Structure formats: structure tokens, C-alpha cells
Prior knowledge:
Blueprint: H1 3-8, E1 12-17, H2 31-46, E2 50-55, H3 58-63, H4 75-98, E3 104-109, H5 111-115, H6 117-132, E4 136-141, H7 155-165, E5 170-175, E6 180-181, E7 192-193, E8 195-196, H8 218-228, E9 232-236, H9 240-244, E10 251-253, H10 263-270, E11 277-280, H11 282-290, E12 300-304, E13 312-316, E14 322-327, H12 343-350, E15 364-366, H13 367-374
Parallel strand pairs: 1-2, 1-5, 2-4, 3-4, 5-9, 8-10, 11-13
Antiparallel strand pairs: 6-7, 9-10, 11-12, 13-14, 14-15
Helix pairs in contact: 2-4, 7-8, 7-10
Amino acid sequence: MSERETIAKARRIVVKAGSSSLTTPAGTIDADRIDALVDVLAARLDEGTEVVFVSSGAIAAGLGPLGLTRRPPDLATQQAAASVGQGLLFARYTSSFARHGRTVGQVLLTADDMMRRSHHRNAQRTLAQLLALGVLPIVNENDTVATDEIRFGDNDRLAALVAHLIRADALVLLSDVDALYTGDPRRPGARRVADVRGPSDLAGIELGGSGRVGTGGMVTKVEAARIAGIPVVLTNAASAARALAGAPVGTLFHPAGGRRLSTRHLWLAHATTGAGRILLDAGAVEAVARRGKSLLPAGVTGVEGDFAAGDPVDLCGADGAVVARGLVNYDASEIPDLMGRSTRWLARELGPEYEREIIHRDDLVVLAEAEKDVR
């Protein structure tokens, strides 16, 4: 079965729509656009497919009521706009899906929810139960409480992580452009890229930046496709029905196959930035990067930055290259006293609470392996 056929016959699918697909240029909700997209999703539901809809637009929907003409640069005003806009956006979805006799449920997530084991499992259970009850979950980032340090930054990445969370068969990303192009599609000579099978198909392509009301851009969509590990179609909202039917529209990102990382490890690899750096000797690099071991104090040669226990940090070899990222068990200020010591010695000299890893292997992702697995 081809990847296009996989999308047409998918039992469970994630569809993501960006802000520009849902709002007017003035930042208000575009009821006609939303109704048209809801009609497409409802038709797919009628075919027996389970659908999770990841919707941007909360901040954009709040701009008009607050008298703002552009997305505000500061986080506090963005959160205020999201607080106003999220209710308006979800109310509109509720009434639009009600035309088809469909019930929707709101699920607001932060990147922190993907990181913390209990939050991750709760989100997974909630989405599974909503689908079991015949409810269409509408997911958005919880912009009103997310901070710069724990934000997804765009809903493309969130959609890819949700696809992993529910083990979806396919992902459709709806944008304000109908496909990936070799350059700005408004300029002569730009060609549509019909298929992406690997990094070589992206060579020389100008991915561009973010949009006027959104936070993403083509680069985040390409990144989301790499994370997803399943067939991904990128197109515009007007082509949503054809994309879901398996028609050759937009750009199809083919999965490379191989082992799928857990959602938490995907979050670590692709949705976080190291709050600091821990330097490793050659033995520790070998143990962590090639043998899947936890990072022990004995293999640490240095620490850089100011981070707290639980923060993501980068693990670097002697040449400074980042080999892995993980959630650290100690504050940065504690690590110098632990470096080069065995956990047994630390437990004897400092107490049993120090008989633990710097980073446990369950909270660590090898970035070279992550790159290989999601391509």
C-alpha cells in the first residue's frame, strides 16, 4: 500500500490547521473557513475514521477583540490574547460540528505535559477515551500558561507529538500554502516538491520564516514531518478533502521507517533546548551514545550553565559536540562535587540520596540516533 493510500484508509489520523487557515487578515475568526474545514472532518468521521484535530488560532482569534493588529511580541500579551481567543475559537468549533451531530472535546497541552510521565499518560488516556466515546478531540497548546522555556513554539511540532501519543496512521498539516516549494511560491521559477523521501530532497530549498499571525513556518512543518515517522501531507485547507482522500495534492513526506521513539524522547530531541551543558569523558560518551546506559558521575568532566534538577541539558563529548540530551537529576551547582566519583562512594560519603545517576537512561535521548530514527 502506498503512503497516499495509507492516508485514504487510515483508521486514526491527526489533522492540524494553522492560524492563517482559520482567521481573517484582521485576526478575527473566519466562520466560513471553519465551517468548510469542519465539513471535511465530519465527512471523514462518517467514514469511521478516528480524527484528532490540532487547531492553532487562539492567539490570532483574540487579536481583534483586544484591538490588536498583529501578534504581540511579548509573552504576557500573547497569553492574554489566547485567553480571549481560545473560548471564542472553541465555541465556534462546537457549534459548527453540532451541525453534523458531532461532539467535540477541548484538550489544551503544554510541552511540559509531554515531558512529565504522569502528565503524558494522563493526556494519552484522555485522548484515547474521547476517541472511544466518539468525541473529536480538538487540541491546542495551552498558551495561557506556557512559558518561553516550555513552549512547543508551533502547533506543527505539537501535532507530530500528538500523532505519536495516539499512534496515528497519518498526519495532515494544513497551511496557507498548498505545498512545499523550492523557493517562495510567489516568485517565478519556484517548483512544487511533490515528495520528500529524505534529506537529499530538501537540499537547496528555502524554508522561510514564520507567518504574520502564526509562529511556525515551513521549517517547522518539515521538522514535524521528520518527527512524525508516519506519512505526512502538507497542503492548504482548500485541499484538505482531497488530501484525506489520498489524492496527489500538496507535498507527501514519506516515513523512513525504523524504530519510533517514545513521545517523551521525541519531545527531548525536538521540542527542548538544553538549559546547560555537561561534559563527558570518552568512556561516558561510549556508554551513553552507543550502549544506552545512564550517565553516572564518574564519567562527567565538567558542567556549564545554571540549571535546576529536572531541566533538559545537553551532553557533550571532549570536542564540544552534543551527543545526547536528558533530564538532569541534580542542580548545576551540585555536579562539580560529584564529578569523577562512583555512586557507591557518593552514597557512603554524602548519603544514600546521592546514589543515583546524573541522568537516567529513561530520561535521555541520543541525538544522533534521534536524527536517524525520524528520517
